[in-house]
Here is the input.
Amino acid sequence: MKHLLQGIHKFQRIAFAPQKRLFTRLANKQSPAALFITCADSRVVPNLITQTQPGELFAVRNVGNIVPPYDLHHGESSAIEYALNNFDIKDVIVCGHSNCGAMQGLLAPESALDKLPATKAWLQHAKLTREIVQTNYAGLTPQEMLEVAIQENVLVQLEHLREHPSVKSGLAARRFNLHGWVYDIESGDVLIYDPTLGKFQSTTKQSSGRTRSNNTRSTLRSQKTSRKRKA
Ligand SMILES: [Zn+2]
Here is the structure.
């Protein structure tokens, strides 16, 4: 706790004070242009990855960046509905990440989650991901299996998202676009799903125009997850 309290003082001194005007502007109003749905994992920091300021991303976080079916009693349904009806959201992103513990749990034998009954029940919203991986990617190593599960889960959750009423109506009116991302913690790369190519593409390669050696795994994943889907 001491570490966190020291952090608050440091924030007030180093981050808040120089940006006083920003926080004064944000005090009574937010106008985020992106709805960012990602995992609760401590290593995923949306504003850091996208280099955005407070007020720019409306974030929804849970274990496994899951979008459960529309339900009046789900926090996710409320957050999605709230963001899309109150703000001029232009982009909705579902962002998975490398070495996701939720996806590891999803691929593990069911008994592995017996001590985490709430997590086991929650991951039922990703059971289609498990079925897709087991059906289409048999023969991969466990690490490769995890990597494709992370990508496939982003696509599955985008499909769930399309069924939410506020998303359906917004897409019909062309108010915003949906995007599937995977953040690679080790390399800092963000893979973005290209619905035309039917695979995730490295942003590092696109922006730098050259292939880095640590993109090998990204390339592997791009090749593995090649079934075409809408996004
Ligand atoms: Zn995760």
